[in-house]
Amino acid sequence: MAEPIVVTVFAAPDPNVSDKLLVSVDFPQVFLSSEDDDQVRWICQEGFVDVVFAPVNNPFDPNQSTGGQYQTQPDGSVISGSVDPNQLDPNPDAFRPFKYSILVTSFDGTRSGSRDPRVMIRKRRVYYFQSEQ
């Protein structure tokens, strides 16, 4: 398994709303391959992060009773796990999009904010490295 693809989550106080965080990510869309067992690691230094997929539309764990939410520890990260092959498009070259929410709460619990990025997943390899060509 390769290193997970890192998505850094940034959160800054909203100057206009006292209890709101402005949330952004360095990759609003991440492309993954089931063939390469690509995974995502979400990291945030500014607060606690909940990564939330709709349970039955979670590409990593579509089980309605267990799938859907990942939580980081303070000053930490969380890894998605492997893609569930049953969640892929039958065409191995076609990407299937999955929308999710990133919810950030400040460490002191006084501010929060969210962002809704996507992961795009297909069976075939996405990333090719110079040494492989």
Mind sketching the topology for me?
Blueprint: E1 5-13, E2 21-25, E3 29-33, E4 40-44, E5 47-52, E6 69-71, E7 77-79, E8 96-99, E9 101-106, E10 112-115, E11 118-122
Parallel strand pairs: 1-4, 3-11
Antiparallel strand pairs: 1-2, 4-7, 5-6, 5-9, 8-11, 9-10
Keywords:
single chain, 133 residues, mainly beta, Immunoglobulin-like, four-stranded mixed β-sheet, four-stranded antiparallel β-sheet, 11 strands, 41% strand, elongated
Summarize the structure.
By secondary structure, the chain is mostly beta strands.
How would you describe what is shown here?
This protein has 133 residues and is an all-beta fold. The chain has one domain: Sandwich (Immunoglobulin-like). It has strands at residues 5-13, 21-25, 29-33, 40-44, 47-52, 69-71, 77-79, 96-99, 101-106, 112-115, 118-122. It has a 4-stranded mixed β-sheet, with no helix packed on it. A 4-stranded antiparallel β-sheet has the order 6-5-9-10, with no helix packed on it. A hairpin with a 5-residue loop joins strand 9 (101-106) and strand 10. It is elongated. It starts with a strand and ends in an 11-residue tail after the last strand.
